[in-house]
Amino acid sequence: MFTMTNIKNVYDEVQVFFDEELDWNSAIKRDWVEGFLRQQAWQGADDQVLRDRWHNLQMFVAYLVYSSDMTIDEMTAAEYSLAVEWMIVQTEGFKPNVKTVNHLFDVLREFYGYLATRKIYFDIAELDQAAAFMTGSKRLKFIEAEDDEESSLLSKSSPTIPKDIGHIVGEAVERLMLKFSSYFQQEKFIEDFDRALVLYLGPLGQMPEDENDDEFWLGFWDYFLFDYHLLANDRTPIVQFELDYNERLTEEERKILQELMGAKFTVFYVESVVNQDWVDCVNLLTDEKFRLPNPNYDYKLVKKLLFYGHVFLQQEENELVMINFITSVEISSNLRRRVKEEINRQKDMLALQQPGVTWADFVERHANAVRHTIDLLATWARVNVTSYMQVERNFPQPADDAKTINTAVTDSIAVFMPKFGYSLHDTILAQKLWHDFSRIITVNVRKPAVWAAAVIQAYSQINNGEAEMPLDTLAEEMEVGKSSISANRNKIFNVLKLEKYDPRYLSEEGMISLLYDLQ
Asked: pTM for the whole thing?
């Protein structure tokens, strides 16, 4: 979240911002801003007015730096509209209404006018165009950038393939990327972002040597937006963005967002080249066949590649179009078969937790595990990553579905698990563990918090291995005795015959840990 620094005078604020808060030089120079403020002061502006002028300029400078140090000359009317949307998300107190935005534009006009007195000229026609469109009526409007190629992509009436489908689709995604990035930089998503990075990297935690590696961050954002599940509500970030931000998007952007939300994670290989435009592909997991634009790779090479990433179906043509970030890895046909066997086993594990699970259900929950599985088998040359033993075990079955469950324990689990950093999905699985246990034996619950703590400890030992929830932390936070927690935890383990990575209660973190566990 972007906020103004509270310092004694406005000139100190300007100095701190340019000297300490900016990572590199801005397209707007510090002496320009200071000169403008001094001119305003000579014209009678008081401290409150000067701070207001600086606050608006500070937002604009921050946006220019954020957008790869864009210059003022490069600012189109549409770019000014994007800048305002970024400020609405990033700036505390910046209200999305005509009055606030009109005032911002007035300050920029004053600033450009001051620069003209110093013989530093910028064309304000684009600024005026943006102001007229965005603030010319009672309701604030945003500018929809015209792009005939994107419009043609979204029109499903034409069966012809665009000449550069990847470029066009990439531009469509890029239009929303700035807004995605701004939205998810809010403080409330910091914990989710950090957790997503840990899950994406896996237990080895190997960040690329170059932390600005575009390929790495494209892959991460592809995972984060489409496949990660938020701690608070288990939604994917792109779904949460649509719920919170849809009203701020242009009509064209809403259409693009809906297309993106229909994307499905798919693992596939090329079966044959139809012609210079199309290739026939096979979904590795379901054996479904579909057609994709020709990636124009060497034919001998493309037959050896396994692809994975997000695609969406154009229903009228029954063809798929790649979007965003598709990864490929060169593997033999034998290794490709082993990849399929490993992922099949993982789906069987999820079926023990979620009977009747489909492939769509599996990849919706564990697309990240699929990524890691392919990487481990293809890059790290692992023989296998998923144990047969967990799938083939005999599990005790709850005898009575109608048996009364102590809801005070269920509620206590729901209260404390988020405090310990667990997700909503974790909470649901832990509650399922308690319900299963309670339906096998009769439980005498004197203090619900003791049983809730025991369930949380058992759950952490199933999924987190060496990083299990410390007994001391549970006892202190839940105000119960350590010996009581341990005794109840042992009862739960014995009755349910729990083991590390038990598939009945295996989380996303647990599945990733399982893949990297060499034992």
From this structure: 0.70
